[in-house]
Specification:
134 residues; alpha+beta; single chain; four-stranded mixed sheet; 19% strand; 4 helices
């Protein structure tokens, strides 16, 4: 009744159905999902940017500009702080994660050094296994 005179017929009917089935508690989730659909239809998408410290407005704007130049949509930056990150940032776009944190870079370096060491050991072993005649 409150919305009946101001809302469209479809919207009022939608609210009546939710009320009739005791589902009005779903309105916040419905609102969030409808906002995501509206953003997508208007060429925007939310991008979660996680950093070790709180980003200032200039840093957020720089990240947004760089992402906008390389993505087919306008990013809406959703900054988060994770003190467990040593440095760098982690960018999540939908289900894709781009990790440029220091922890990730150190892990990649460790893996490359480990692989190089294994290759050196293998090549040294191969040198001693083959006879001069072969």
């Amino acid at each position: 009744r409150v919305v009946g005179k101001k809302g469209t017929e479809i919207f009022v009917n939608f609210l009546r159905v939710l009320a009739r089935h005791s589902r009005l508690d779903l309105l916040p989730a419905i609102l969030k999902e409808s906002q995501l659909i509206h953003e997508k239809n208007s060429g925007k998408q939310r991008v979660k940017v996680t950093s070790a410290k709180k980003l200032n407005e200039t840093e957020i704007k720089n990240i947004q500009d760089k992402l906008a130049a390389s993505l087919p949509f306008t990013p809406i930056i959703m900054p988060e702080v994770n003190p467990d990150l040593i440095g760098g940032i982690v960018i999540q776009i939908g289900d894709k994660v781009y990790d440029s944190s220091l922890r990730s870079r150190l892990k990649q370096l460790r893996d490359r050094l480990r692989q190089r060491s294994l290759n050196e050991i293998q090549s040294g072993r191969d040198r001693f296994c083959h006879s001069e005649g072969n």
